[in-house]
């Protein structure tokens, strides 16, 4: 069996500083991060909004210091919503 503790520790270190948020893979939405249980009792960063990440691995999250834009994350941290939230279907909803 492989020891995953070094992988979990290095992932925690990437998100350990205050103000570090996450982008999933090549996404544009910035999520708040919290620590959650992964496997074998290891604790790793996860999205505060609990949005699922298909094929989740610690490499799926990229650290960023950009402002959180995920509306669900903002609600969880008490920040209301963001004008930076990306539209789901684009701006052309009237036509």
What report would you give on this structure?
By secondary structure, this protein is of the alpha+beta class. The chain has one domain (5-76). The chain has helices at residues 5-14, 71-76; strands spanning 21-24, 30-31, 33-37, 43-47, 61-64. The strands form two sheets. It has a three-stranded antiparallel β-sheet, with no helix packed on it. Strands 3-4 form a two-stranded antiparallel sheet. The radius of gyration is 15 Å and the shape is globular. The relative contact order is 0.20.
- Record the strand order, biggest sheet: 2-1-5
Count of individual domains:
1
Biggest pleated sheet:
3 strands, antiparallel
SS-based class: alpha+beta
- Average pLDDT confidence is 82
Question: How much of the residues is beta strand, in percent?
Answer: 15-25%
Q: How would the global form be characterised?
A: globular
Q: Span between N and C termini?
A: 57 Å
Helix content: 10-25%
The poorly predicted ranges are none
Strands, total number: 5
